[in-house]
Design goal:
alpha/beta; Rossmann fold; 2 domains; 10-stranded mixed beta sheet
């Protein structure tokens, strides 16, 4: 078993219904569980039906739910038969977002994984207003999976707005994925730069101020994008075949505003690769304040 970094999550929580629409996040969860040598919890949420064949089971109430759980257990057993992974299964009922948040609260530090299809509840919850609920409510990282798994993440980009949250994102990415090159990307925005600080100089100072594992600094590629941040970030992802974008989120950060403001759907749909959302630990009293907003 490889040595685990202090930032390696103690486990993974995958939100899935084990149908074909959740194949990509399932395969990524299995790949990461193997790479990190950590346990995987598969959470199946009973929500309103997403396909015509599920309507009768949903109307049957407890009996329909029991039938769904039986089918999910059989599918889980087939999926992990002979697998060396430490995989367990959970069930929850109710709106998907709330069920994921509640289950994640019982697994402190675990990385939460969900898909991003626009045609199912586990994907829809990552678009529009619900992404704000998850980004604010989840204490642990949230991995949004879009792409097929073609091996470990190799081309990684950390988007930064020079906040402590984006510093944590870079430190987390460098620790989670040692030995891999990481692009540190900042889209030039005069509103958040000091007047006397050229953007590249500020980016280099930001990188040099991060607490990185030994040898990680030499693998970082600082890049400045000129223009509107969301479109520049999305363009760089496509032009450079990025596998994973890591974003550090905080209520005061520009990146959080891009995800939860009026352009949230544009950003989440435009960034076509997987996305890891990382939040710094809440300050005393901050969680209570967030619940009021």
């Amino acid at each position: 078993m490889p040595d685990r970094s202090p930032t390696t999550p103690p486990g993974l929580l995958l939100a899935t219904d084990l149908s074909a629409r959740c194949d990509r996040p399932l395969e990524r969860a299995k790949q990461l569980a193997d790479e990190f040598s950590i346990p995987l919890v598969v959470l199946t949420v009973h929500d309103a039906p997403q396909a015509p064949g599920e309507v009768l089971q949903w109307l049957d109430g407890d009996a329909g739910r029991a039938q769904q759980e039986h089918a999910a257990r059989e599918e889980f057993a087939r999926e992990f038969a002979g697998s060396p992974l430490q995989a367990t299964q959970r069930f929850a009922a109710g709106p998907a977002a709330g069920a994921i948040v509640d289950s994640a609260a019982t697994l402190p530090g675990a990385m939460v994984i969900a898909g991003a299809s626009q045609h199912d509840s586990l994907g829809d919850l990552l678009l529009g207003s619900t992404v704000e609920k998850l980004a604010r409510a989840l204490a642990q990282p949230l991995l949004v999976v879009r792409q097929r798994v073609r091996g470990p993440y190799r081309r990684i980009m950390v988007a930064t707005d020079f906040t402590l949250a984006s510093r944590l994102a870079l430190e987390t990415a460098a620790s989670l994925f040692p030995g891999r090159r990481i692009t540190v990307f900042h889209a030039h925005d005069s509103d958040i730069l000091a007047p006397d600080a050229p953007p590249r100089a500020q980016l280099l100072r930001f990188v040099d101020g991060c607490a990185l594992p030994p040898g990680a600094r030499a693998l970082l590629d600082p890049v400045i994008g000129e223009g509107e941040p969301a479109s520049q970030l999305a363009r760089h992802v496509v032009d450079n075949s990025i596998d994973l974008v890591v974003l550090g989120l905080h209520e005061e950060s520009a990146l959080m505003r891009l995800l939860t403001g009026s352009r949230s759907e544009y950003l989440l749909q435009a960034v076509v690769c997987d996305t890891l959302l990382v939040r710094p630990p809440a300050r005393p009293g901050e969680d209570d304040e967030n619940e009021k907003t």
